């Protein structure tokens, strides 16, 4: 579950979260010091969604390229049933 959050959800919502946090602080600053508050409904929503999608795809590609072991250096042993117990699958190095 944590991996799903970090790989899929966090990169997608990170640009939106940063923008909304900035808008929230900016609105507070404008209330104290005057000026023009950002209009959240006119924010750069398509750009933020596109940026989130790009971050998600980039992180997924990086994760796919960086994870795992060399298939020639490891041997997968599938789960098996021995002596009334299920032995989970494992990876062994050659």
List keywords for this structure.
94 residues; alpha+beta; two-stranded antiparallel ribbon; 2 helices; 4 strands
Q: How would you describe what is shown here?
A:
With 94 residues, the chain is α+β, with helices and mostly antiparallel strands. Helices cover 57% and strands 15% of the residues. The chain has helices at 2-33, 45-66; strands at residues 74-77, 80-82, 85-87, 90-93. The strands form 2 sheets. The protein has a two-stranded antiparallel sheet. The chain has a two-stranded antiparallel ribbon with strand order 2-3. The chain is elongated. The chain starts with a helix and ends with a strand. The model has no long low-confidence stretch (mean pLDDT 89).
Write the layout of secondary structure elements.
Elements: H1 2-33, H2 45-66, E1 74-77, E2 80-82, E3 85-87, E4 90-93
Antiparallel strand pairs: 1-4, 2-3
Helix pairs in contact: 1-2
**Arithmetic mean of pLDDT:** 89
Q: What is the CA-atom radius of gyration, in angstroms?
A: 23 Å
Task: Describe the main β-sheet briefly.
Answer: 2 strands, antiparallel
**Assembly context of the chains:** single chain
The sequence of SSEs as H and E is HHEEEE
What is the CA–CA distance across the termini?
31 Å
Secondary structure category: alpha+beta
Residues in helices, as a percent range: 55-70%
Shape: elongated
Number of distinct beta strands: 4
Please report which band the strand proportion falls in: under 5%, 5-15%, 15-25%, 25-35%, 35-45% or over 45%.
5-15%
The number of helical segments is: 2
Q: Strand arrangement, largest sheet?
A: 1-4
Poorly predicted segments: none
């Amino acid at each position: 579950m944590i991996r799903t959050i970090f790989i899929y959800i966090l990169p997608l919502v990170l640009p939106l979260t940063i923008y909304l946090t900035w808008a929230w602080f900016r609105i507070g600053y404008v209330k104290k010091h005057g000026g023009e508050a950002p209009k959240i409904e006119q924010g750069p929503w398509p750009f933020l969604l596109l940026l989130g999608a790009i971050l998600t795809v980039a992180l997924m590609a990086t994760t796919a390229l960086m994870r795992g072991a060399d298939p020639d250096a490891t041997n997968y042993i599938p789960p098996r049933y021995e002596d009334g117990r299920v032995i989970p699958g494992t990876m062994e190095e050659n």
